[in-house]
Amino acid sequence: MLTHTRRDRIVDYINENNTVTVQELMSEFDASAATIRRDLSVLHDEKRILKVFGGATAITNSDVNTFEPTMKAKSALNIDEKDRISRYAASLIYDDDFVYIDSGSTTLEMIKYIENTRAKYITNGIVHAKKLLEKNLNTMIIGGRCKVSTEAIIGPDCIDGIRKYHFTKAFMGTNGISVTAGFTTPDVDEALVKEEAVKHAYISYILADHTKFGQVSSVTFADITSCCIITDREVSKNYSSKTIIKVV
């Protein structure tokens, strides 16, 4: 395992367990005590964890993110990772699919790679619908209230609209992924829309780069076991033991 990958996974593991020992980390990552202590020292200096006698504790485990970046701000983050994730996600669409595409920056990037013109597409993303139409794809948009910052359609009308449909696949965005809190987002209205879409899909894919792991936002919209995850780096066994994870 590459050093940076192991250290990212150590942070995830500590964030999920709050307090861990060196012995636990040695067993989890099949590494020597010297390697683990060196990793903890580096991560402590980077202010990603707090090194204590005999182990480490999480710095941000109890923090809950209530801030929702704008679509423009999110689109500028982790561009290469989103490109790989979205390209793979688009390859999962087949001729007879009825696809739900959630609002979000990675799901928006995914549309660029969609080649299947025989599937049907439905979305609550305003820009997403425009991009789908530009590709001459069979497109529907859910009605409801428009949220300016994320350019998403939300609210009771949107939820009622989703309840009428049964999707073969849903491609979802998320602000955080936690073994205990599940998939989370800061906005309760968006969470309710996401929750309904996942309920009405045969299979749901969460499109999330590695920075989303170990993060918790205000509202849970799905349990960790209810969706498959497409991401860009290997993650700790805490996650992979709970659901299917595809690393691209």
Task: List the main descriptive attributes of the protein structure presented here.
2 domains; 15 strands; Arc Repressor Mutant, subunit A; 248 residues; alpha/beta; 3-stranded antiparallel β-sheet; 37% helix; 10 helices; Rossmann fold; 7-stranded parallel β-sheet
Please characterize this protein's 3D structure:
With 248 residues, this protein is of the alpha/beta class. It has 2 domains: 3-58, Arc Repressor Mutant, subunit A, CATH 1.10.10; 71-247, Rossmann fold. Helices cover 37% and strands 24% of the residues. The chain has 10 helices and 15 strands. It has helices at residues 3-17, 22-29, 33-45, 71-75, 79-90, 105-111, 126-134, 156-162, 188-199, 237-240, and strands at residues 19-21, 49-52, 55-58, 98-101, 120-123, 138-141, 145-147, 152-154, 167-172, 176-178, 182-185, 201-207, 219-222, 228-231, 245-247. Strands 6-5-4-9-12-14-15 form a 7-stranded parallel sheet, sandwiched between helices. Strand 7 (145-147) and strand 8 form a beta hairpin. The longest helix is centred in the N-terminal third of the chain and has 15 residues, at 3-17. The protein is elongated, with a radius of gyration of 19 Å. The model has no long low-confidence stretch (mean pLDDT 90).
